[in-house]
Design goal:
This protein has ten helices and nine strands. It is an alpha+beta fold. It folds into two domains: about 150 residues, Regulatory protein AraC (Jelly Rolls); about 110 residues, Orthogonal Bundle (Arc Repressor Mutant, subunit A), CATH 1.10.10. The chain has a six-stranded antiparallel beta sheet with strand order 1-2-8-3-6-9. The longest helix has 18 residues.
């Protein structure tokens, strides 16, 4: 097993700065944005009907799919079948390659991009941590194990929308087996955060209909504003308010998938206006809320 191995990191030949997340080319031919359009949709998004709370990304010859810094409440498993997808974390990086299963633990801040434009295919599942009897490691890791890679691909295909679903309990058991086999072993070298950091994390994840001030949440933590902001960013990887914004955007994805309008979603999560909501969404996820909504509502549920 390779624990948090870095296959490709910044250096000679990869000197271009990451910059902001680029807009994903959701509909188009492999010739690029300027090429003739076809009916093929390179990236298909859906929420699984087999495992409640599982979000699936099925990409085939995706041209560009870059995200900003973000996190997920649950586990994320990545299986690249063609090309390479690069993941950057606050303390290192991993490049997902064909045959290699990559695991990103819950709430780990990261960003990602495809390295081979127009030539990257992958299956990504973001899975709920609740109900899984598997301890989460503190760091991401990858394992070039063909059997484990194949087991995840099989699970992914079985929980796709429109697939002949196995019972949720059986799917969860298979998922636990994969996570149990692939998770990191040994003690983590990441120091545990102060209790008030986890306390405020949980508070911010529950308080998505308001935008708290830094003064109010540092007061809730019982420490000074400077000490709180420094400790939170050090252990979480984002400032408290940036973390809260990403938590609201995660909820927005779920609401949009449930049929909420973009205006109602923006209002319910206390974004200043729909334009602000759209800018934040695109900055973090590499697509606009409208593009995400289109992919969730224009035949993807039946085609993924």
């Amino acid at each position: 097993m390779r624990h948090f191995g870095c296959v490709v990191c910044w250096g000679p030949g990869l000197t271009r700065p990451w910059g902001h997340a680029r807009k994903i080319n959701l509909i188009g031919s492999s010739r690029g944005v300027g090429g003739s359009r076809t009916a093929r949709r390179p990236l298909k998004l859906a929420w699984s009907e087999a495992i409640v709370g599982a979000e699936l990304y099925d990409g085939e010859d995706v041209q560009t799919f870059s995200t900003g810094w973000h996190f997920h409440e649950g586990w994320q498993l990545v299986a690249v079948t063609k090309g390479k997808r690069h993941y950057e974390f606050k303390s290192g990086c991993i490049t997902a390659e064909p045959g290699q299963l990559v695991l990103v633990p819950p709430r780990l801040v990261h960003r990602a991009r495809c390295l081979d434009q127009g030539n990257t295919s992958f299956k990504i599942a973001t899975l709920p941590a609740a109900g899984l009897n598997v301890e989460a490691p503190a760091a991401p890791f990858s394992w070039p194990n063909p059997n484990l890679f194949g087991a995840f691909i099989s699970l992914f295909e079985s929980i796709k929308v429109g697939a002949h679903h196995e019972p949720q309990e059986a799917a969860l058991n298979r998922l636990e087996m994969i996570l149990g086999e692939s998770r990191a072993t040994g003690a983590s070298d990441h120091p545990a955060p102060p209790p008030f950091v986890r306390q405020i994390e949980s508070y911010l994840l529950r308080s998505l209909d308001i935008v708290p001030s830094l003064d109010s949440i540092s007061s809730l933590a019982g420490v000074s504003r400077y000490h709180f902001a420094h400790a939170f960013a050090k252990h979480v990887g984002l400032s408290p308010l940036a973390f809260h914004t990403r938590a609201r955007l995660m909820r927005a994805r779920r609401l949009i998938s449930q049929g909420w309008s973009l205006a109602d979603t923006s209002l319910s999560l206390s974004f200043s206006d729909q334009s602000h909501f759209g800018r934040q969404f695109r900055k973090v996820y590499g697509m606009t809320p409208g593009e995400y909504q289109q992919n969730m509502t224009t035949g993807v549920h039946s085609r993924l």
